[in-house]
Each structure stands twice: as C-alpha cells, then as structure tokens.
C-alpha cells in the first residue's frame, strides 16, 4: 500500500527571505503569468514608437518611448527582484501579484495616450496600483524578516514617497511634466541604492539571470512580429523586396538572440554596485531590442512608400537600437574580455551606424551581425581549445 502526500499551500506565510543558494530555483507559473501580461505593455510601446517614427516625429518618438519604456521596465524589475528574495507563494502573495498584473494592464492601456498627447494619467494610475501592492509586500517582509527590517521598511517608505510624487506630477502645468519625470525617475532608481546599503536582500543570482533572459525573449517577440508583418505585406503587395527585408530582419533578430544567449551562465555580480549596474543596465538592452522591432516595421513602411521618412532615416531606426544593444551587452557581459574580444562589440556598434549610408542598409546590417556572431563563435571555440591544451 502506498501513501502520497499533497502539498497544501498556506493562505499566509511569514516572509522570512529565501536562501540565495537555494537549489533548482526557477521561474514560477505566477512569474510567467506576470511576464505574459507585460507583453501587452511592450507591444503598445513598440507599436507607438513605430507609428511616430514612420510619421517622421523623431524627437517626440524617442522621448516618449524612453519615458514609457522606463515605466514598463521599472515596474517589471521591482517585482522580479522582490520575488527572487521573498516569494512565499501563499494566497496573500498571489493576490497582491494579481493586483500588480491588473496595474500592468492599466499601464499598458495608457501607452497610446502618453505617445499621442503626452498624457500620462492612465499610466500613472496603473503604476499606482502596482506600487501600492509593492508597498504591502515590503511591509510583509519587514514584519516577517527582522534581520532585514530596516531594508524592507526603507523600501516601503521610499516607494510610498516617490509614488505620491508621481500623483502630484499629474497636477503640474504642461511645461513641468518632463523635468518632473526626470526628478521622480531618479528618485525611484535611488530607492534600492539607499535601501540595499542597510542590508542586502537575499535575491537568487541564477533566478534573476533566468528572469532577465525570459524578459529578453519577450522583447525579441516584438521584433519577430515585425518580421511576420513584413512577410505578410510582401505577399499582399506582391513586393519581392519585402521578402528580402524580412529575411534580413530575421537574421538581425536571430543574431541579437544568439549574442545574448551565447553565454547563458552569465550571472549578476554579487556586490551591490555590480548588481545595480547589471540590473539597471538591462534597461538599454530591453528597450533597444523592442525598438529594433519598431525600426523594422518602419523599414517595411518605407518600402511600401507609406512612411514619411527617407531610406536613410529608416535605416537609422534599425541601426541605432542595434548599436545601443551591442554597446550595452558589451558593457554588462563582455567588457572583461581581452584582445580582439575587448573591442569587437564597440567596433561593430560603430559599423552599424555606418550602414544607413550604404545601399540596402537593413540587409547590410544583417550581414554585419552575422559576421559578428561568426567571429564570436570562432573566438570562443579558440579560447576553449587553448584552455583544454
């Protein structure tokens, strides 16, 4: 006779902090559900960027996109690092996470208005919903983890104060909106800097690395969507050039994926300064990948003669985010390399910015990234052979 035991989830469990060396720590279904809802927000931001760029509203497009994507990224990042340290998977935690997901959907609904009218009211309300749930979680952590009570309390107080600032920003005159955003964004990113100095939270390095890899796949999905649209447009318009453009776009996206996951064991540094630099620096990687998708969509519009930008400008809408991606990836993962590996990515980023001056800039950029992947592979295997010898 066999007996089986079934784990019954508790409705409430004290948040004592999870072990940073916990074995087999992977993303939970709740975290994957949270990411799935953020797909909507990323898609809204990328789609709005595509529209503004295609209409030749370049300054407005870049400013609005970086602003909106900051809200998306910051909300996702705060949940991710907190969950890595304090995910209890009790019923109360699940409910507060679902509240944050609802806030993410409200935030996503406000993205188009933020782009067209610089109206951040809906985005702010969604952000408020998410941050209030975050405050509840930090207060739970303060109550359940006495060793990190000062850290958790500082987080809760900092989030509350800055959130009040975001609400007050809605009452400011139009001309004050952008300066106030910069001040409040800086205050937001300084909260972890201050709080973690009082005691480092017990986040799990392998878990954090996996969560960042999963979000990288989400933003790569926006570029994949642009390629699919290019193929569909080529079929509908009977334009064979769009097939070549789609093929080049696929090579670009495949290369971006390959370069990021070439060394999947890359973990965030253990030091406070290193982990903050690694975690914050991914803003550029995520924003750049999603912007590549928008740029590819602009290139399709330009080939269909429905965009109000030149071919060179359309080329830059892809080349600039690719260059930013290469530099950010180099700074976060690869700057410790020596010899050719040290300069390879910065040189490739500079060459990427030259491609819009050449005929067929997107295919040329695809060729450049293909060569970069090949050289990276050769260097890696050569280094492995040397170490074996």
Task: Describe this protein's structure.
- This protein is mostly helical and 389 residues long.
- The protein has 13 helices and no strands.
- It has helices at 29-54, 58-86, 91-109, 111-117, 121-144, 149-169, 177-196, 205-237, 240-261, 272-303, 311-334, 340-354, 361-388.
- This is Low temperature requirement protein LtrA.
- InterPro entries: Low_temperature_requirement_A (IPR010640).
- Keywords: Membrane, Transmembrane, Transmembrane helix.
Task: Give the topology, please.
Blueprint: H1 29-54, H2 58-86, H3 91-109, H4 111-117, H5 121-144, H6 149-169, H7 177-196, H8 205-237, H9 240-261, H10 272-303, H11 311-334, H12 340-354, H13 361-388
Helix pairs in contact: 1-2, 1-3, 1-4, 1-8, 1-10, 2-3, 2-5, 2-10, 3-5, 5-6, 6-7, 8-9, 8-10, 9-10, 9-13, 10-11, 11-12, 12-13
* Mean pLDDT over the residues: 86
How many discrete structural domains?
Answer: 2
Biggest beta-sheet profile:
none
Anisotropy-based shape: globular
What string, H for helix and E for strand, traces the elements in order?
HHHHHHHHHHHHH
Radius of gyration equals 22 Å
Secondary structure: helix percent: over 70%
Pfam families: LtrA
Protein name: Low temperature requirement protein LtrA
Organism: Micromonospora kangleipakensis
InterPro entries: Low_temperature_requirement_A
């Amino acid at each position: 006779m066999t007996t089986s035991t079934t784990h019954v989830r508790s409705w409430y469990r004290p948040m004592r902090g999870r072990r940073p060396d916990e074995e087999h720590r992977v993303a939970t279904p709740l975290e994957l559900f949270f990411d799935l809802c953020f797909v909507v927000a990323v898609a809204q931001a990328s789609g709005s960027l595509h529209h503004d760029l295609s209409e030749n509203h370049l300054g407005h497009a870049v400013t609005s996109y970086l602003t909106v994507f900051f809200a998306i990224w910051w909300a996702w990042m705060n949940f991710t690092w907190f969950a890595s340290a304090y995910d209890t998977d009790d019923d109360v935690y699940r409910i507060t996470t679902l509240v944050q997901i609802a806030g993410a959907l409200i935030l996503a609904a406000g993205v188009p208005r933020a782009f067209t009218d610089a109206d951040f009211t809906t985005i702010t309300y969604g952000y408020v919903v998410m941050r209030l749930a975050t405050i509840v979680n930090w207060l739970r952590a303060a109550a359940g983890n006495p060793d990190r009570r000062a850290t958790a309390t500082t987080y809760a107080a900092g989030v509350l104060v800055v959130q009040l600032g975001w609400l007050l920003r809605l009452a400011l005159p139009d001309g004050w909106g952008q300066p106030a955003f910069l001040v409040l964004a800086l205050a937001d990113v300084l909260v972890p800097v201050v709080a973690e100095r009082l005691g480092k939270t017990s986040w799990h390095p392998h878990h954090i690395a996996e969560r960042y890899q999963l979000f990288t796949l989400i933003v790569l999905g926006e570029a994949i969507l642009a390629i699919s649209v290019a193929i569909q447009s080529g079929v509908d318009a009977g334009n064979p050039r769009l097939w070549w453009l789609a093929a080049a776009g696929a090579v670009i996206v495949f290369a971006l994926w390959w370069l990021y996951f070439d060394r999947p064991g890359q973990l965030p540094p253990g030091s406070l300064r290193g982990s903050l630099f690694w975690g914050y620096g991914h803003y550029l990687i995520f924003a750049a990948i999603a912007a590549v998708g928008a740029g590819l969509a602009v290139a399709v519009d330009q080939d269909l003669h429905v965009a109000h930008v030149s071919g060179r400008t359309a080329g830059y809408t892809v080349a600039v985010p690719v260059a930013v991606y290469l530099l950010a990836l180099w700074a976060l993962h690869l700057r410790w390399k020596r010899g050719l590996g040290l300069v390879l990515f910065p040189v490739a980023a500079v060459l990427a910015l030259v491609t819009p001056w050449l005929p067929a800039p997107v295919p040329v950029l695809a060729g450049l990234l293909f060569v970069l992947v090949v050289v990276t592979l050769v260097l890696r295997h050569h280094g492995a052979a040397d170490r074996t010898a």
